[in-house]
């Protein structure tokens, strides 16, 4: 496993969803880690080539009654492999 996506929710501001992408396999080593969240016509993104532990938190508000999309990506330190995950239509309601 290369990483774990953590999704958080709060009822504040008409519904707030937050995403963190935490490295697992190369935890503590500089690598590209990306976190992206979208929904309710909004999006937020965090990505850098030298993160050691996690990307994010990224968040959007006004998500009550809307679905969200989350994406996470990790590129190994040698920049020879990438693993990514995208999930659509999550936490609709």
Intertermini distance: 30 Å
What is the general shape?
elongated
- The ordered string of helix (H) and strand (E) elements is EEEEEEE
Strand order, largest beta sheet? 4-3-6-7
What share of residues is helical? under 10%
How many discrete structural domains?
1
Provide the CATH superfamily.
Immunoglobulins
Q: How confident is the prediction overall: mean pLDDT?
A: 96
Identify the notable features of this structure and list them briefly.
mainly beta; Immunoglobulin-like; three-stranded antiparallel β-sheet; elongated
Describe it for me?
There is one protein chain. The chain contains no helices and seven strands. It is mostly beta strands. The protein has a single domain (3-90), classed as Immunoglobulin-like (Sandwich). Strand 3 and strand 4 form a beta hairpin.
Write a brief caption for the model.
This protein has 93 residues and is mainly beta. It has strands at 3-10, 16-23, 31-39, 42-51, 54-61, 68-75, 82-90.
SSE order and pairing:
Blueprint lengths: L2 E8 L5 E8 L7 E9 L2 E10 L2 E8 L6 E8 L6 E9 L3
